[in-house]
Design a protein that fits this description.
This protein is of the alpha+beta class. 29% of the residues lie in helices and 14% in strands. It is built from 9 helices and 6 strands, in the order αββααααααββαββα. β1 (23-25) and β2 form a beta hairpin. The chain is extended, with a radius of gyration of 26 Å.
Length: 256
């Protein structure tokens, strides 16, 4: 889509929304696809940053610069998870074992050439891989280590700081007993589960927009149509959330 003019627009240059909705259509691209926006074009279009490597995956493709700087898994937790950055392999004893076990659990049950590539690139060729760490390695023992890990209470609380919007709570659940019948669930004994952390949806949204991947967010919904030539009937394309009827309706409510 050619929305280059939208990218150069200033935020305060948007015209006032008229009483009757104005539909703005982009020109058809090479594949016969075009967008329809309500009222005005977006100030920013993530399509302008999209490359082939973002839409497909192959070991023969060259990686884009941004894919080499993928965000770490802990970045969404906030700035307080300093311990996760230095001891991210906990409860395992070292990074090599962690990478190997992560590959085992994240890979599919049926091995493929792609899974073999992941083993080589993400485990064996990792900067912190150390062959010495695998001496006397036992997968069953490492699996037990993961199952029996309780975690350090102080470290866990430091990793979920209130400054990042994390809140600690406990949950009470009713416990059934074999051979015991209660007149209702309300009189069944309770079991308290402490040490649960959560963030309110607004804090999660704020954290998401602080990530570099936020530049890939489609904040202005639109309809997508397909018409390869003038003598072919227009066909509406359904795909992502940002061109769904539900998001278009909610977006219209905000601007009404």
């Amino acid at each position: 889509m050619d929305d280059a003019t939208a990218d150069s627009a200033e935020p305060d240059s948007q015209p006032p929304i008229p009483s009757q909705p104005v539909i703005i259509s982009t020109t058809c691209n090479y594949f016969g696809l075009y967008h329809q926006y309500m009222h005005f074009l977006p100030l920013f279009n993530p399509d302008n940053l999209t490359l082939v490597v973002h839409l497909s995956d192959s070991s023969t493709f060259m990686k884009s610069p941004d894919s080499l700087l993928a965000r770490p898994w802990w970045s969404g937790f906030g700035s307080s998870v300093q311990s996760a950055q230095s001891n991210y392999f906990t409860p395992f004893l070292n990074a090599t074992t962690f990478c190997l076990m992560r590959w085992f659990y994240s890979s599919s049950s049926t091995k493929s050439l792609a899974e073999l590539d992941h083993l080589v690139n993400e485990v064996i060729l990792a900067e912190d891989f150390d062959q010495a760490h695998l001496k006397e390695f036992c997968a069953l023992k490492e699996n037990h280590r993961l199952d029996n890990y309780q975690g350090d209470t102080v470290d866990i609380r430091l990793s979920f700081s209130a400054s990042d919007g994390w809140k600690e709570t406990s949950v009470k659940i009713r416990i059934p007993a074999d051979g015991v019948k209660h007149i209702s669930e309300d009189v069944a004994p309770e079991f308290d589960v402490p040490g649960l952390f959560y963030r309110r949806p607004l804090e999660v949204i704020k954290a998401a927009f602080c990530e570099s991947t936020a530049e890939q967010f489609y904040l202005t919904p639109f309809k997508t149509f397909y018409q390869p030539s003038d003598d072919v009937a227009v066909e509406k394309i359904y795909g992502e959330v940002y061109n769904s009827s539900a998001m278009l309706e909610e977006h219209e409510k905000i601007h009404s």
